[in-house]
Every structure is written in C-alpha cells, then in structure tokens.
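Quick one:
INPUT:
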C-alpha cells in the first residue's frame, strides 16, 4: 500500500482502535503449495488483543481468528505440517492483513470548486481509509490437543461476544441478551472445532492511511465536504465529516511546521548575538536549552500572528495558451510557429485572418510508365517458369497490373501453349486465398448480385482487383491484432496490418486501371464499371473514408446518367446494393456530428426504379432502410431544433406549434409507407412468437436477415412516434406523465430481437449494413425506461466481451460509453434525447489503424429533467 505523507496515520493507538471498529480483515499469505495457488486471501473477522494484557502478555498487539479447514488457504498451511504430531505450527514468512474502513466513495471532479473552474486540471479519485499489519502467524490446527482446544474455545467465545455486543448491541438489561457459544450443544461445538483452524498473529508492523482529500486546496476540499453532505445518507455524511476532520488536522500540522521553522530561525539569530540570550537568563553555551525555552515562550504568538506571512506562494500565471504538441495546422507549420490547435480555428490563424486547415492522411494515385526493353529470347521452359512467383517473392505482394510486362515477354517467345495457360500460371496463392475467403465469408454479407459479379471477375482484371481489395479489407477488420502502442480512445486492437496492406495494393491497382480508361471504355463495359464503383463504395465505407465514398457516389451518379433508365434486373440489384451502403454512411454521419451537421443531413430518396413493390428480401431491406432513415431525420431534426432554440429567444410559440404540426404530418406520410411495407412482408420473414408467451417477450425469426429487416421496421416505428416531440414542444405536459410509452414498446421489441440474434453472426454479416449497435443507440434516445437502457448496456457489454471492435461498421466501444452515460444521467432524473459533437470534425479520418474514425473525448448531451419542465445541454467526457 502506498502511504503519502498527507494520508499516512502513524498513531498506533488510533490504528488499533480502527481495527476494533472494523474487525473484518483480509488475511493474505504467500505459501508454496503442490495443489493450491501461491497467493491466497480470505475475509476473516478478527479479535484484537492489546499488548501487555491478560490475554496478551507480550509487548506486541496480537490478532486472533479461525478459518475452515476446507478453505484452500488453510489447506496450504496444513501442507507444511507434513504429518507431524499435533502441535502449534508457526509460519516462517510474514502474513499480511488488510482492514478497510466502513465508508469509502468515489469523488467526482465536479466537487473541486476551486481548481476545476480555474485550470480544469482535475481528475476523479476515491476516498477511503485502511490499515494493514504484518506479523508472524501461528496455526492451531488440531482441537484434540489441549492447547489448540483451549485456544479455539476462547477464540469462538471472544469473537461472538465482540460481535453480539459491539456490532449488534445485544448487551442485556434493556437490550436483548447476547448469544453465547455455550447456548449451542457441546457436541456440536466440538464438531465445529475439529473443522476449523485457529490463527494467532503477532503484529510486527502496523500502517494506516486516511485518504480523504486532505491534500487538496482548501477550496476544493470544502467543495468535497459540501458535495458529500448534499448527497445525504450515512456514507455521504460520514465521508463529509472525515474530509472536514482530516483537512483540519493537516492544516494544523502545516501551521505547526511553519511555527517550528520560525522558532529555529529566531534561535539562530540569538546564537549570533549574546544580548537576547542574556536577556533570557541563559548562558551562551546552553543553546539546546535556549531552543526549548524560546519555543515555549514564542509558539503561541507565532501561531496566532505570524502564520499569515507563510501562506503558500500563489500559482504562477500562465503566460501563453500554446499547447505543446507535435501537430499543428498547415498555416502554422508553414510559418514554423507554435499552434494552440484550437478548433475550428487556432488562435494564430484567427488573429492573422488565415484559413486554418489540418493535414489529413490521404491516398494519392499516380500513373507511372517505365521503359520495356525487349528481353532476350529464352527457351519456353525458362520463360514460363519465370512467370510463377516463388514462396519468397510472395512475401512482398505485387499488384496484378504489374504483371503485364511478363506477359508481353512471354508472347514474344515461341510457345506451344496458349495465353490462358500463361495467365493461369500468374495466379498467386494470395489471390486464391482472398478469392476463397470472398466466396465463403464476404458474399453472405452482400447483395446476391455479387455472385454474378464474381463470375465476371476472371475476364476483367479491374473487377477482380476490386473484389480482392474488399475481401482483404474484410478479413483484416475481422481478424484484429494487438497494437504495439495503444491509445486511450479504445481497446488495444487494430485491423490486421498484413491484410490491410494487401487490400490497399489491390485497391491501388484497380484505381490505376480505372484512371486510364477512356469514354468508350465506360460505354462498352458500363455494367462492369458499375459493379466496380459499388465495390469501391463498400470499401470506403468499411474504412470510414467519407470523402472517398462521396467521390465514388458522384462517379456512380454520372455513370447512371448515361442510362435512359434502369431496365435490366442486374442493374436494379446493383442500384439496391448501392443505396443500402449510402444509408449506412448516412447513419454513421447522423451520430457523433455537430448539431448543425445533424440538422442539415440531406434526405436520400429511393430511385424511381426501386419504388415498385419489392420482390426480394434485399429489395425490402433497402426500402425499409429508406423509410427508417427519413423518419429518423425528421424526428431528430425537430428534437434538435428545440435545443437550438435554447441559445436564442427569438422563437415564438406559434413557430413551435407550426414546426410540430409540419413534422408530424411528414412522419404520418412515412408511417403510411411503412404500413404498406409490412403488409407485403412474406410469412418467412415475419416474427415468430412463442405460443405460451403471453407477454411477447420472446421473438424468433427464420433467418438473421429477416430479423435485421424487422429490426429496421421497429426502429422506423419508434421514430414515427410523437411522444418525445409532445414532451419537448408542449410545456403544459404534466411532469409525471410518460409521453414515451409507445416509443418504449418499440424499443423493448428491438432489444428482444437483438437478444435473439447470434452476436457472432451479427459481427460477420452486418459489415455492410446498419447493425444492432447503431439501432440500439437510436432506441435508447427514444426511451425513458432505465431498465430497458440497462438491457441495451448489457447487450453491448456482451458484444465487447466477444469482440471489442465494430459491428455494422459502428464502433462498439464508443457506442457503449455513450449508452452508459445516458443510463447514468437517467438514473439521476435526466432523460437524454440527442447526442452531438460540440465541434464537428467532418467525420474524422479513415480507419486505417483502428476501428473508430473519430477521436472523441467528450460529447454534448441534450435532454430534459424528469421532474422539471426545463431542457438542458451538457458536455460530458466519455473517458474512452
């Protein structure tokens, strides 16, 4: 245990009294054993025998206790007897016993009323008190021996007397009589004694500490006192009193140290001049006596008047706002000046009127041409063998596009084979591996149209590279590995570096082939290019690269303009897959963005070709996704507008009513679309309820995809409910009314669906669609039930225990901490209805080495007090 000077307690009598008041200790031993662990710990109630008493004639205090022989710790000690005749067994090594105080509690930085508003340099801590002792243990392990039997009988009697009288208050007289060992049958007590071992510990060292914020500044300490007093309850009042008591003790100690130093300075002055010494009636040589007499004569005066001269020096004022960092904006780095890295504009750029922009990692593709000297004519066997990569060459992956020179060289050689044979020899084991993984693991998570795309890959290198790039990216993100240096933003896992590197190589090769294409190539191979662009969009979505994703979206739109209309089924299926991934990216930007970005997120309507009655599961999925995202946009836009009005007072009640009516009208239109969608749902995709389950708490489905589609339907229903809007827009709503009962029903249904689904399947099959973690985050923001919120938190915790990376392209750790804060706020009477960033970061940076694209330390939580008709906005640290 660490004993800081401000926390340590050295008064042995006080420490022994602490043990009497808190007799339950943790007995810790370290003993080599053939069958048990080396370190053992047991909670044991102790009896303290002070030194030089009838029970303990020695000069050291002693502890007495007994533990069951079936306890592994007792078995370890009994091994040391080696079958010797019954006797008292002394242990060679010291043992440790730790006693904890009755009251301990977490201390929030919000209690620090002096330092937190001044510098903000505060962290939470924990207040507690504890005493630990070291000593020599003697084991009384056989009650049949006279000495051990007498020890055990007295130990049991004294322990029961201590607990009955001190703890229970059974002292007789007006109080009940205490229970005694003699009240039990004698034979029963004998059997009990045979199954326990007595323990006597002679204390050789005792230490203790009271960590009660006494090291804090007076203002912070007083804030802690007031904070715990306001909490109420036995623990709050006790902690408040202890902090006050220990703070006063440390202040007196500091004052005494200052007084002693002042007297020593005065004595040194007297030593250099004989006049004051003579005036005190002392000889010049008796300076040790002078110190004592001067101290007694001056101590009262010094402590009362001179203490104020020795106050702690004030804090040095901070002269600059510069934050030491290796990063900075482009403008400051170009001028080689220090940057305070403020967002969105640093102080220097704001003062100079410069554009403040930060460098972000990005890919830059170049087309490089090299000379192709004609190789000398070689025998066919030599030329063909040179085209096959050896195992050593495989360790350095080479894009398939770089193999064209080898093919040309082989074409100029007299051959007896065909070009297809030579091309087949160039297929590496790496390509076969990722193709196999693509077919076994990626295709089940994608639209069935990609089965058709796989059959075209052999004849189109650009399509093959795009498939392999997405395959390598997928396996790299599923097979996480530990980082060498982990940041505090999430767990110490990152995507597989080898697979991610190969994915970038395949991606670069495909981009190069796309860049050198001409207009006629796009017209001639429009279907292939459409598939490639959709694969690129999936890849950028998986990497969290929003800028790259929007680039491919614009390219897709330009290519679709060449078509007079989507007539064939293949193009329609590609369009459905493309729209699904667009909704996934839209959902990712709808969370963890600023309030302005959330309110201006565009609506993404379905293309005309997808408005018909859906015929397949994936067509039904993209349609319900469009309804869910639009309902989410309308609902959250209206909610966030109420919180934006907190910043301005120019909004009238008429504007509120008009906005509420307009929003509910649009939500009713989306509800009508959802009614039509659910009527078209085939029986194979509908939920299955247990016959004996009258409450409908158990929901099953025939497939994971059917469950996920129905989960989208449930979230859309929750977003179309207007209970939250009535709660926020109608100030006359009774404080006790629960406006969100309808939303709560749908959120409970969503939780049941998530609990039924297999988590491992969700991790693998939800990579390219909105997963349960994102849906549950939306659900908890529309539910006032703490019980449902805790179920969501437990589900996310179980998902983290299984694989703490991502699910549905959503960062699990980030989502879990947000849900945890929402539940904490709800427990103290504050409902949260929206979460945004204080300053938008544009979606962060691509997830090249992690699973969260944004480095978020705090978020803005928007909510309403449960018992008050008032809204609030508070920035809370995520501690992620």
């Amino acid at each position: 245990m660490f004993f800081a000077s401000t926390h340590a307690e050295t008064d042995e009598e006080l420490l022994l009294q602490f043990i009497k008041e808190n007799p339950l200790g943790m007995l810790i031993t370290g003993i080599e054993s053939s069958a048990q662990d080396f370190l053992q710990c047991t909670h044991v109630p102790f009896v303290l025998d002070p030194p030089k008493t009838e029970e303990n004639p020695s000069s050291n205090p002693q502890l007495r206790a007994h533990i069951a022989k079936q306890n592994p710790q007792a078995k370890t000690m009994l091994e040391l007897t080696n079958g010797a005749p019954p006797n008292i067994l002394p242990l060679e090594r010291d043992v440790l016993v730790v006693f904890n105080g009755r009251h301990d509690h977490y201390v929030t930085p919000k209690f620090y009323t002096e330092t937190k508003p001044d510098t903000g340099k505060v962290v939470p801590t924990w207040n507690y008190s504890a005493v630990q002792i070291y000593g020599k243990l003697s084991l009384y392990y056989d009650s049949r021996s006279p000495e051990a039997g007498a020890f055990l009988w007295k130990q049991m009697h004294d322990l029961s007397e201590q607990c009955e009288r001190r703890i229970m208050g059974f002292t007789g007289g007006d109080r009940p009589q205490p229970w005694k060992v003699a009240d039990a049958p004698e034979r029963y007590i004998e059997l009990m004694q045979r199954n326990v071992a007595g323990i006597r510990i002679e204390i050789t060292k005792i230490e203790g500490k009271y960590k009660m914020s006494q090291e804090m500044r007076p203002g912070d300490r007083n804030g802690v006192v007031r904070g715990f007093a306001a909490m109420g309850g036995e623990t709050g009042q006790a902690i408040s009193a202890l902090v006050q008591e220990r703070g006063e003790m440390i202040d007196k100690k500091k004052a005494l140290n200052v007084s002693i130093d002042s007297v020593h300075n005065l004595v040194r002055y007297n030593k250099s001049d004989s006049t004051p010494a003579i005036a005190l009636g002392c000889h010049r040589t008796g300076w040790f006596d002078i110190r004592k007499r001067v101290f007694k004569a001056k101590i009262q005066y010094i402590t009362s008047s001179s203490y104020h001269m020795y106050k702690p020096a004030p804090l040095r004022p901070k002269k600059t706002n510069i934050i030491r960092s290796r990063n900075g904006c482009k403008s400051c780095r170009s001028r080689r000046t220090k940057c305070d890295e403020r967002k969105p504009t640093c102080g220097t750029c704001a003062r100079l009127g410069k554009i403040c922009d930060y460098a972000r990692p990005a890919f830059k593709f170049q087309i490089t041409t090299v000379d192709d000297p004609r190789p000398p004519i070689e025998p066919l066997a030599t030329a063909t063998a040179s085209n096959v990569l050896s195992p050593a060459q495989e360790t350095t992956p080479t894009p398939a596009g770089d193999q064209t020179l080898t093919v040309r060289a082989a074409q100029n050689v007299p051959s007896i084979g065909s070009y297809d044979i030579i091309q087949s020899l160039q297929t590496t084991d790496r390509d076969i591996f990722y193709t196999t993984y693509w077919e076994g693991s990626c295709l089940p998570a994608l639209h069935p149209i990609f089965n058709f795309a796989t059959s075209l890959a052999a004849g189109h290198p650009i399509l093959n590279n795009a498939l392999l790039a997405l395959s390598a990216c997928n396996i790299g993100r599923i097979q996480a590995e530990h980082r060498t240096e982990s940041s505090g933003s999430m767990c110490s896992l990152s995507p597989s570096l080898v697979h991610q590197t190969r994915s970038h190589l395949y991606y670069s090769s495909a981009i190069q082939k796309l860049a050198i294409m001409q207009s006629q190539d796009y017209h001639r191979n429009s279907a292939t290019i459409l598939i490639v662009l959709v694969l690129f969009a999936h890849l950028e979505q998986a990497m969290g690269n929003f800028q790259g994703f929007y680039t491919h979206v614009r390219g897709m739109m330009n290519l679709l303009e060449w078509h007079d209309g989507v007539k064939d089924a293949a193009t329609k299926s590609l369009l459905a897959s493309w729209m699904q991934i667009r909704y996934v990216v839209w959902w990712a930007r709808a969370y963890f963005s600023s309030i302005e970005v959330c309110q201006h997120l565009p609506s993404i309507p379905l293309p005309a070709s997808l408005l018909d009655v859906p015929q397949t599961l994936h067509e039904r999925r993209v349609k319900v996704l469009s309804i869910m995202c639009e309902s989410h946009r309308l609902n959250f836009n209206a909610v966030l507008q109420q919180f934006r009005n907190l910043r301005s007072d120019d909004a009238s009640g008429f504007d509120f009513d008009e906005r509420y009516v307009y929003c509910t009208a649009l939500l009713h239109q989306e509800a009508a679309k959802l009614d039509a969608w659910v009527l078209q749902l085939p029986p194979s995709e509908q939920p299955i309820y247990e016959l004996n389950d009258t409450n409908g708490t158990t929901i099953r489905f025939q497939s994971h995809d059917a469950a996920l589609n129905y989960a989208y339907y449930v979230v859309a229903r929750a977003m179309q409910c207007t209970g939250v809007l009535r709660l926020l827009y109608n100030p006359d709503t009774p404080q006790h009314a629960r406006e969100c009962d309808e939303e709560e029903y749908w959120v409970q249904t969503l939780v049941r669906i998530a609990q039924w689904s297999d988590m491992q399947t969700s991790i693998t099959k939800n990579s390219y669609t909105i997963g349960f973690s994102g849906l549950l985050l939306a659900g908890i923001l529309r539910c006032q039930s703490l019980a449902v919120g805790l179920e969501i938190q437990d589900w996310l915790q179980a998902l983290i225990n299984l694989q703490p990376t991502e699910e549905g392209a959503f960062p699990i750790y980030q989502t879990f901490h947000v849900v945890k804060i929402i539940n904490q706020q709800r427990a103290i009477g504050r409902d949260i209805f929206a979460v945004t960033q204080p300053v938008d970061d544009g979606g962060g940076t691509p997830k090249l080495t992690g699973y969260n694209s944004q480095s978020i330390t705090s978020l803005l939580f928007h909510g309403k007090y449960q018992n008050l008709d008032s809204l609030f906005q508070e920035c809370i640290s995520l501690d992620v």
